[in-house]
């Protein structure tokens, strides 16, 4: 899709962006419902060559921001694509009302492009029907402005990285087993300014990655630990991003039971978020130092699978009793966190589709975060701005006793069913051991959506890509500001 400014040729569709107190088409009666946030209303041309008009509701003026604009772009793009139109334009009269100016701010150009690209995303790999053709051109303003092109490109890059994560999550488990996942990662980062290491088999044993070895023991596809090192600035703070990569989670010997377990393929959503964030940051050539660590396995039952009552011994000396094999994510994340510390990272964010309990606590639109005060506050602020919303939940020290085991240092599941997401975070904190500033993100409830709305399309959301990337970008900017202040002083 080409973002276009200044072209004179008439578009097939005119997009009207309408606040609930606005009226841009006086000849067209607009009800209050048509102006609600997310509303889409078509007025079709009466004859060949006459423009169709698409009304996109923005809701309350006082709540307007870039997230509302992203949603509007996603809704508009998908509606026009579904109708089979090739060209569209935003009514120039909207600009003054939206931005108090006759041109789009660069931030808005980026947000519109990002929302449009994500809203028109499709995962069509396994369908035999004809794929809908994308809209070829969208004109944002009548005046030609070359400075808008870089902003549009940033929006495309952000959407592409998020779409990469969506593609990985939506993929069938038969085509994205642990071995295939490793190969996909190699393909994504081929030719990039990164060092990529893959630990498998004997190398996992030598490094005592025993949680990963235990979880992956039931699958014919061997587990792996992938390490992606990026040094856009070798002197920057060393951040590790650890992403859970369970390519299919049947629960192991504690077998899951449901009518449709297809969504078990989404259990590598944390890994997908880390890969997407690294894809974006390396394309942007961010001045950062990041190690991405991705433990990958299947969790399936088999004669060789790990069992409840097994004890996993970690290289930091901790032993863990396996109470339930369906609490496998924390076992492999523990290996990832310990590996991050061995790599020298003193700033760690782990991200995972870890517990159903986080959804019971926060619903399906807001992920959970635990850990460092500054980092959690920063992530919450970023998520509110970019749409990857997140909320802090507590780490209650007294609850650690619920993770006790009669014959190991820890159990992998608490002794009561309450606060399961908090308990998983407490478990992971034991492996950080105060050696790094750390946050844990549980995105089990935000990894997918059941229907299309705004720029989120049925299936995987790509949650976490923009959250993690924007966290890094903000920290780079803060470090540069601090360095500049010291230099001036």
Question: What this model shows, in words?
Answer:
- The protein is an alpha/beta fold and 489 residues long.
- It has two domains: 2-133 and 145-158, Leucine Aminopeptidase, subunit E, domain 1, CATH 3.40.220.10; 174-446, Aminopeptidase (3-Layer(aba) Sandwich).
- Helices cover 35% and strands 21% of the residues.
- It is built from 13 helices and 20 strands.
- It has helices at 66-83, 93-99, 106-119, 148-170, 178-189, 202-206, 210-215, 269-283, 329-342, 357-362, 373-386, 420-432, 465-488; strands spanning 2-5, 13-19, 40-43, 52-59, 87-90, 137-141, 194-200, 224-231, 238-243, 245-249, 289-299, 311-313, 319-321, 347-352, 367-371, 390-392, 410-411, 437-442, 448-449, 459-460.
- Strands 7, 8, 9, 10, 11, 14, 15, 16 and 18 form a nine-stranded mixed beta sheet that branches. Strands 1-6-5-2-4-3 form a six-stranded mixed beta sheet.
- The longest helix has 24 residues, at 465-488.
- The two termini are 47 Å apart.
- Residues 485-489 have low confidence and may be disordered.
Mean pLDDT level = 93
Instruction: Give the amount of beta strand, in percent.
Output: 15-25%
Largest sheet: 9 strands, mixed
The CA-CA distance between the termini, in Å, is 47 Å
Helicity range of the residues? 25-40%
Radius of gyration: 24 Å
Please name the CATH topology of the largest domain: Aminopeptidase
Structural class: alpha/beta
Instruction: Give the low-confidence spans.
Output: 485-489
The CATH superfamily of the largest domain is Zn peptidases
Pfam family, one: Peptidase_M17
InterPro entries: Leucine_aapep/pepB, Macro_dom-like, Peptidase_M17_C, Peptidase_M17_N
Family: Belongs to the peptidase M17 family.
Keywords: Aminopeptidase, Hydrolase, Protease
